[in-house]
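Record type: monomer structure entry
Structure origin: computed from sequence
Chain ID: A
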Amino acid sequence: MVTRFDFDPFNTLKEVQEDYQSYVDSFQKIRNPKIQTWIEQRKVVGGLLWKPPYLQIALPFQPGESLQSLVAEGVLQSGVLKFARSKIDQLDSAPIEPYEHQVQAIRKLHQGHNVILATGTGSGKSFGFGIPIVSRALEMKASGIKGIKAVIIYPMNALANNQYEDFSARLDDSGLTIARYTGDTKSSPEEALNDYRFFDEARETLQLRAAFAQGDSG
């Protein structure tokens, strides 16, 4: 069994490279000796089969003002503190501690500016636009404004589905609702009801199976 103490990344890399080269050599037969020599040389030093390891140091993002201070200042509605909670499955958990670029985006949007937020993966871009959108929606709801408050457009269904699950869980008990419209969304009430009945029946079937399984194990 390999543990984190006896794992050698360099030996592992070497073994993977040797295995991959052996696999490539097993089906490549070069008759021309000059071409064969050229290929063999570049297998060793030319990066023909793989690129050298690439290492990058990711610096921590600069912390910004707390969401509580933005609420106290009137930049955000107090309801966003529950939306931006640090533990999504705990309604009473503390809000996240935003990064500086998120705070800047929130302030700019509050001032009515258009914003492009370009940062690295895991830097909280979704909160950068999600928090001010939810804050504005809560403000409009409190003012008695009904109807759709915002439309968020995603480039891929997978991203839209992922964000929908996250946002819908965070908006629980907020008074706001969220809906998802993708290429899989049905275009008529009848189709939507048929899908609902299908999934409802499937859910009931799974519940019955789980109940029977528990009974057998008991």
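Annotation 1: The chain is about 55% helix and 0% strand.
Annotation 2: The mean pLDDT is 87.
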